[in-house]
Design brief:
Elements (H helix, E strand, L loop, with lengths): L7 H26 L4 H27 L20 H28 L6 H28 L3 H11 L12
The protein binds MU-OXO-diiron.
Amino acid sequence: MKISESLMPAFDDQITLEFASSQAYRQLAIEMDVQDLPGMALWLRHQADEEIVHANKFIDHVIDRGNSPSIGAVDAPAVKTGLSPAEAFAAALEHEQIVSESIRNLYRAADAEGDIDARPLLNWFVDEQIEEESTVGEILARIELVGDDGPGLLRLDDELSRRQGGGTENVD
Ligand code: FEO
């Protein structure tokens, strides 16, 4: 079933927000890289790639349903320079909370139209957002626990460097 004309702008906006998320993570990665925290930078770069996968998941869904998605303008990331690791991950968590609410609003809009076909995709994203908020929140909590302990921060940085990248394509 095609997505209705009234619902399509919400899908386009979500696709654009996923690309904006990718840009925000890429900027946060730069912030950590210039502070010689390569593990955090790598973790954030992989997250930037994962946001492209999210955008592609939405794009594939929209095309599969016979609609034509349009990517909107992506503003420069609203990320200040010179962020501490705690500030960087707090910014990431705040961003994820915005994305979660956007997914919920898309879900509400699809439900209001009786768009059952979107439910499996949106359920996947509801789960994904719970996981993303939890993961970023956990990293932030551990950065705060480490506090001013330099060796502790370097150990955490090393741990985060082990995150594997999975490419940017939606392979489902
Ligand atoms: Fe695609 Fe991190 O939300």
